[in-house]
Amino acid sequence: MHGPALLDRLRAAASELGLGRIGVAAAAPSAHADALRSWLARGHAAGMTWWMERTARDSVDLRQRFPWFRSAIVVAQPYLPYDGARAEQEGILPHVARYAAGRDYHAVLEARLEALAAVLSAECPGQTHRVYVDTGAILERELAARAGLGWFGKSTNLILEGGDSWVVLGEILTSVALPAGTPVVDHCGTCTACLDECPTGAILEPYVVDANRCLSYLTIEHRGALPEEAAASFDDWLFGCDVCQEVCPWNQRVAPAADPDFAAGDALRRTTLSEVARMDETAFKERFAGTALLRARRAGVVRNALLVGARRGDDAVIETARAARADADPAVREAARQALAMARGSAPAARPRATGTPPQSAFDAPDDGVL
């Protein structure tokens, strides 16, 4: 076991590399293996079920795949790209989850973590490592909680100790044994703002999210056409959803990240919904190169733009939907039909959204129990 001095040097190097808070979780079986299996059995993983079931054995104990694994260095990277209300932003920024406003965080964070791993290799020659950023069979939030970085909010987002869930996570799995952090107490208290305000009711109960209803899943990961009810539920989101974080009392005190890689890009500020709805493959890749929007692919983003624009009564998008009925992609064609039905008022009504106000007393609420 290497002592605290090495961890202090790694923290200093992480700061120089532009990384956020780091903590360490020791290699150990997951305490949530049964909960994961139950969640999968209930179908809450939606289209991700097949992959998550196939990789569950590895994810609940990473030593199954990596026998050399001793510690996970976990980084919580701040990304809040702008100050002020989302609705005040230009272009399609109001319709894009904040983590996707700047450069693709996968590439940004992976490069910084590899640089930190090089520092670790210099300190511990011969060490073995793997870097992950929202990829692979990794229970990232559990590792972050075990590392003492924060707690699981009722929305299932990690909330850093002291507040702030506007972070993305990355890990270095290493063969080096490092001093592990101490888990922090759950401070959500009696607050239910994230459950009350979820546009689609995807947070079924505290700490349980149904991906079949979650806008982050539907707008990004879901491939192909959307069921009628899902198409009508898009609220205002083109890519991802931030509502559960917007209403969280712990996030009311968070300032934007002073990191140019996560600053909102001009491409999103100068692009309108109707322009997105008209994009072909080439235009889509050129406009959003280097951003996370590429993950949803051209068909997914155009599909979403048609639905959001129709719900907003955007005449330019509705006109584009008429032409999109002949699009080469069947998902876009179906979205065009759904958009036009929405414009005519013949589409299914969206689920009513709760209007509760997040209780500010949640900052001082008693602990309701940890995961």
Work out the radius of gyration: 21 Å
Read across the widest sheet, the strand sequence of neighbours is: 1-2-6-3
- Tell me the span between the first and last alpha carbons: 28 Å
Q: What structural class do the secondary elements suggest?
A: alpha+beta
Sheet-strand content, in percent, reads 5-15%
Largest sheet: 4 strands, antiparallel
Helix content: 25-40%
Secondary-structure element pattern, one letter each: HEHHEHEHEEEHEEHHHHHHHHH
Average pLDDT, to the nearest integer? 91
Tally of helical segments: 15
Poorly predicted runs of 5 or more residues: 352-371
Overall outline: globular
* Number of domains as seen in the coordinates: 2
**Number of β-strand runs:** 8
Tell me about this structure.
This protein is globular. Helix 13 (297-312) packs parallel to helix 15. Helix content is 37%, strand content 10%. It is α+β, with helices and mostly antiparallel strands and 371 residues long. The longest helix has 19 residues, at 105-123. The strands form three sheets. Strands 1-2-6-3 form a four-stranded antiparallel sheet, with helices on both faces. A two-stranded antiparallel sheet has the order 4-5. A two-stranded antiparallel sheet has the order 7-8. It has helices spanning 4-16, 33-41, 49-59, 105-123, 140-146, 193-197, 215-221, 228-231, 243-246, 266-269, 273-278, 281-287, 297-312, 315-324, 330-344, and strands spanning 21-26, 71-78, 129-132, 150-152, 158-160, 167-174, 203-205, 208-209. A hairpin with a 2-residue loop joins strand 7 (203-205) and strand 8. It has 15 helices and eight strands. The two termini are 28 Å apart. The model is unreliable at 352-371 (pLDDT under 50). It has two domains: 4-174, no CATH class; 200-234 and 271-344, no CATH class.
